[in-house]
Amino acid sequence: MLLEIISLPDHQYDKVAFYSAQVVGKPDSEFADFMKRMKKDPKDWKQVGILNWWLSRIGTLYGAQDHFFKREGYAERLPPPTYRFVESDGESDFGLRLYCLVLSEQVVILLNGGRKTAQRVQDCPNCFPHFNFANKLSDAIYEARQQENSEYSTCS
Amino acid sequence: MPFMKQGSKKIVSTVHVPEIRESIRQLPEEDKIFVERSLEIAHFIAGVLDRKNLKQKDLAQLLGKSEAEVSKLLSGLHNYTLRSLAKIEAALGEPIVCTPVKNKKQKEAV
Questions:
Q1: What is the phi-psi region of residue A63: left when phi exceeds 0, alpha when psi lies from -120 to 50, beta otherwise?
Q2: What is the pLDDT of residue B31?
Q3: What's the mean pLDDT in B68-81?
Q4: Which of A45, A122, B5, B110 has the most other CB atoms within 10 Å of its CB?
Q5: Long-range contacts: A138-141, Cβ < 8 Å, 24+?
Q6: Residue burial B35-48, b: 16+ Cβ < 10 Å; e: rest
Q7: What structural domains does chain B harbor?
């Protein structure tokens, strides 16, 4: 599977630059696919607006600080960069989950996600494929960094 | 602006996602304020923990909650109740929320 990193000009801020990943051959990046799918349901769309506003405030005011992004419980034991996620307040359910990779406080790769309908992500058909993808991508980036095949910079 | 590169070449394409700005434009003002306040509170609590050399698990213990629950509190997307804020203030020994009235009185006292 070949991947391209996609810059998101609508999510570039002074403190954080957000990117996404696109599987070569697919029409959209992971984040663009997430946005288009969530647009179909008004409840999802509203929470997507909340997530995008949240991203913009993180990017403008705070930076991608560690405590803003959640981990699956067992991911504490994995080497970085483990995938992380953000989750909207579900009110009556588990909310919208968006997976991402936080490479530094200045660089975040936004991936995909969906509405979480089960306690465990493994039991949620909306989130599980994206959880898997995020897992694989974080492993691939970790290996690439070990082999020094990729680097990222926070130069302005 | 931060960017990703491989060797000396940039490997990044740029693609607009119009749904990003569209979703923000259509977001009601109260939801924007909710996010702003939640982020401010989360950021402030994280700062207090830092200053006091406490980890999230320490706050979890003080509050009698799980680490996963504390992780939610610090995400900047949490809908705090007044009761939960009171518990956090009591646990950390520091005020978290000030009303404009209290602020004004404090300024006058100085």
A1: left
A2: 95
A3: 90
A4: A45
A5: A138/A78, A138/A81, A138/A82, A138/A83, A138/A101, A140/A3, A141/A81, A141/A101, A141/A103
A6: beebbbbbbebbeb
A7: 32-97 (1.10.260.40)
Per CB-CB distance under 8 Å, the chain A contacts of B37 are none
The answer to whether residue A11 neighbours chain B at the CB level (below 8 Å) is yes
Nearest neighbour of A11 by CB, restricted to B13, B20, B76? B20
> What's the distance, Cα to Cα, between the start and end of chain A in Å?
31
pLDDT of residue B7: 44
Check CB contact under 8 Å for A6 and B15: yes
Query: Is the CB of residue A144 less than 8 Å away from at least one CB of chain B?
Result: no
H runs (alpha helix) in chain B: 18-25, 29-51, 56-63, 67-73, 82-92, 100-109
Inter-chain touch B15–A149, beta carbons under 8 Å = no
ipTM over 0.90: no
DSSP A9-60: EEEE-SS-EEEEEEETTSSS-HHHHHHHHHTTSHHHHHHHHHHHHHHHHIII
Closest CA to A64 of A15, A134, A5, A135: A15
Please state, in angstroms and rounded to a whole number, the distance separating the CA atoms of residues A16 and A63. Answer: 6
Interchain contact, A107 vs B2, CB within 8 Å? yes
Which pair of structure tokens corresponds to residue A8?
Answer: 């998101």
**How many residues comprise chain B?**
110
What does the block give as tokens for A61?
């005011």
For the stretch A20-74, pLDDT in tens is 999 999 999 999 999 999 999 998 999 999 999 999 999 999 999 999 998 775 5
Distance of CA A145 to the CA centre of its chain: 19
